[in-house]
Predict the structure.
Amino acid sequence: MQTPIVLPNSAPLLSRTGWTAFLVVTIVLTACVPALNLWVDPTSAFHMSDFLVALIGKIMCYAICALAMDLIWGYTGILSLGHGLFFALGGYAMGMYLMRQIGLDGNYKSELPDFMVFLDWKTLPWHWTFSGSFAATLVLIVLVPALVAFVFGFFAFRSRIKGVYFSIITQALTFATMLLFFRNETGFGGNNGFTDFKRILDIPIATQSTRMFLFVLTAVTLLGFYLLAKFLVQSKFGRLLQAIRDAESRVMFCGYSPVPYKLAIWTLSAVMCAVAGALYVPQVGIINPSEMSPANSIEIAIWAAVGGRGTLLGPILGAFIVNGAKSWLTMTAPEFWLYFLGALFIAVTLFLPSGVLGLIRKLTTQKSLDKGGAA
Amino acid sequence: MAHKSKTSLICMIQFKNYDIKFLLKYFLLLVIVCATLKPSFAITPEQAKALSVGETDARIQVLQQIIQEPDEKTLVFLQALSDDSVKILDGRAFIVKNNLGIDPITGDSVEVPADAQDVVSNNRMRGELDAALSALRLFSADPKLRLAAVKDLQKDPDAGKLSVLERALKLEQVQKIREQIEIAKSSILLSSEDPGVRLTAAKKLAESHSPDTQLLLNQRLDVESDPQVKIAIQASIKTIVSSLVWGERLGALFTGISLSSILLLVALGLAITYGLMGVINMAHGELMMVGAYATYVIQTFFIHHLSSYFDYYLVVAVPASFLVAALVGAILERCVLQFLYGRPLETLLATWGISLILMQLVRTIFGAQNVAVENPSWMSGGIQVLPNLTLPWNRMLIIVFAACVLLAMATLISKTRLGLFVRGVTQNRPMAACMGVNTARIDTYAFALGSGIAGLAGCALSQIGNVGPDLGQGYIVDAFMVVVLGGVGQLAGTVYAALGLGIINKILEGLTGAVLAKIAVLVFIVVFIQKRPQGLFAVKGRSAET
C-alpha cells in the first residue's frame, strides 16, 4: 500500500483584504462605471466619457490575455508567442456571427457578407455553416482554439519541445496562420477582415447601453477568470505546474508525466485568450489578420513581464499600465511611443525581473522590516 | 599539252563566266544599296507634310510607302516624329532639337517660326512609327541594333513589314541575324493566304525558342483551317515548349538558389549570435536594416561628392555596413545582453525592445518612407542564357557574395585564434576562463561579428529590394527557421537548411503560389521540429541536452 502524500492545508482562495479589494473592484466595474457613464450628466465632472469606457473595456480584454499568458509562462515556464493566434481565432468566430447579423444592411444588400459579394461568391463557404447561430458561435469560440491548442500542444509537448524552440514554433504557426487569413480565398475577408458590424443578438451594437453591457460582461469575465486562475494555481494542479517550471526532470523522476499538465494549462490558456478575443471584437468593431502579427503576441508577454510574472494580479496590472501608457503616449507624442515600449522591454528584463508588483512588494516588506527594526 | 591548254581555256572561260555573274550580282547589290541610300530618293517635302498632318490612316499609308525606300534623313525625321519634336507651319515641317530648328528635307538648320504647331501622334500612329523605326534599324551598321530590330519586328507581325524583311535578308551577312530574320518572316507568313506558305512558315518557327512565338503559334492554331498546317503548328509548339521547359526549370532553380543565398546571409549572423551564443536576437533583422541604411548613406555620399566614382561605392559600402552593424551590436552586447546570458526568454524580450527602438530611430532620422539605393551600373542587367531565362547580375553577385562570407566565417571560426576562443567559450565557459580567456570580451567580439554579418546581409538586400525601417521584419521569422532547422550551433546545418528552404520554397511557389508555399514551408518546419527537435544536424553527446 502506498501511503498517501499529505498536502499542506490549502490557503484560502483570497485573504480577507483580498476579498474586500475584489469586492470593491467588482462593484466599481459593474455598478459605478455604468452609473457614471449612463446616468451622470455629460457636463458633470464625474461623467465618464464613452471613450474612456471603450478604452477600459479594450484593456480588460488585453488583461484576460495577460492573465492567460501568466498561467502558461509565469506558472508553467512556457513562453508562448502564439497567443495572438488564439485571440484572433476567438475574435474571428465572433466576427463571423456579427457579419451574419448585418443581414441585408450591407453595402450590397445581400444575404452574404459584403466581401463575399465583392469576390463574386454565390454561397457561404463550409466553415461559415454555424455562423448564423449565436449558441453555436459561443461553442465555436471555445472549441476551435481549444482544438488547435490541444492538437498542437499534444505533438509539441509529447516530443518534449521546450524553451525557446517552443516559442519560435508557436510564432511560426501564428505567422503562417496570419498569411493564410490574409488570403481572400480563405473566406475571412482578407486584409480588411470583418468590420461595419450592425447588431448583436438583433440588438443594435453601437448604442451606449449595448456597449455598457459588453463592458460589464468583460469585467465579470475578467474577474471570473482571475478567481479561476487563482484557484488553479493554489491547487495541487497549480503546484505541479510550478514544479514543472522549476525542475521538469525532477517532476518526471517523481513519477508524474508533465505532458497532461502542460497540455491542460496550455489549452485553458488558449481558451481564455479566445474568449478575450470574442469580447474584444464587438467592442472595438473590427478584426483583421494583423491581430496575429508576431508583434502582438510578444506584446502580451511584455504585459505579463511588466506587471510581474507568476502573480496573476501583476499581468492584469501590467496590461493596464502598458496600454494606458500606449493610449496616452500615442495621443500626446506618437513618435515616442515605440521608444517607450522598447525601453520598457529592456528595462523590465534588466531591472525588474519580478515586475512592478514585485517591486511594490519588495518596497512594502522593506518598509515593514524597517518599522519592525525601529520598534 | 593540248589537253592542258584546253583545260586552262575552260578554266578561263569558267572564271570569266563566274566573274561576270559575280559582277552582275555585285552590280545588282550596288543598285539596291544605292536605291536605299541615294539622296534622290530622300524624303520629299510632300511626304514630310503627309506624315505630319491628316487622318491617321493616310499618315500610316505614307509611312508604309516611305519605309520601302528609306535613307538617313527619313530615319531622323521618323525618330523626331516618334519623340514628338516635329512642328509644322503652312505645310512645312521642322525638326526641333535642343531649341534649334532643322529642315527635315535638307538637313540644314533653320529658324522655326514662333507660331509653328506641334505635330501630335495618337497611339496607333506611335505604334506604326516604332515599327517603322525598327524596320529602318534593320539596315543599321551595328549588328546588335539589327538583331534587336528583328526581335522587335517579330513581336508584332504584319504583312506590311514583309518586303523590308526580305530586303534586309538579302543584305544581311551575319548568320545569326539571318536566322532571326527568317523566323520573323515566317511569323508574318504564318497568316498568309496560301496554305503551302503557312506550312513552311509553321515548320520554320519550330527553330525559334521564344515564348512570343509560342503565343503566336497558339493564336494561329485557333483559327487555322488546313489540317496539314495544323499538324505542323502543333509539332512546332511541342518543340518550342520542350526547349522552354528547361529554361523554366533552370529559372526556378536559379531563383531558389538566389533566395537560399539571401537566407544564408541572413541566417549566418544568427547562427553565431543564436547558434553559438544562445542569444535569441530578435533585433537581428534591425541590424540588417542598419547595414542597409549604412549602404544608403555611403551611396548618397558618392552621388553628391564622388559621382564619377559612383560605380565603386560598394567597395566602401560593404565594409561600412559591416562595421556600423558590428558597432551597434557591440554596444548592445555591452549595455544590455551581457546581463542576460543564460536567460534565453529574457533576451528574446529585451532584443525585441531593442528592435523597436532601432526601427523608430531610423524612422526619426531617415523618415518612415523607403529610401532608394541604386545599383552600380555594372550590377544592373543580366546575361541571357536561354530565350526565356535571364540571370540578373545583382542576384548572381549576391550568391557569390554569400559564398565568400560563408567561407570567411568558416575560416574565422575554425582556423583563427578568435574562432578558437569563441568555440571554447561556448563549449565550456568556466574552463575557458580558467585557461585565461577573457570570456566577456570574447562574447562582445562574437556578438559584434554576428551583427556585422547581419549588416552585410542588409547591404546585399539593399541591392535587390526596398530599404525601409521594416526591412528586417520580413526576414526574422525565416532566419530563425533556417537556424532552428539546421540545428543550433552548426554552421554546416545552417548552410544546408538555407539551401533546402530556399529551393523548396521557390519550387512550391511555382506549384501553389507564393503565400501558400510560405505556409507550407512553415508548417513543414513545425512538423519537422516535432520529429527532430535538435534540427537536421544534431550535436551529439552530453552537451546536446543542455
User: Anything to note?
Assistant: DSSP finds 14 helices and four strands in chain A. Chain A has one domain: 20-374. Residues 208-234 of chain A form the longest helix (27 residues).
